[in-house]
């Protein structure tokens, strides 16, 4: 079974956040991260719990420079 690339990506992202904020406490916000490919938004959540913000991330641009990171600039 092939390992998902989201786990190492999230680990790297959270590690960068930890380094960025060092010992200060950032403002915390609840989000629902919705990853989708292309124009297919038919399965986009229409309702989410109060206190959460929906963040849509289109990953149809592919991966960044042959890495496991999503290229958000395409």
From TrEMBL:
| Designated name of the protein | Uncharacterized protein
Query: Organism source for this protein?
Result: Thalassobacillus devorans
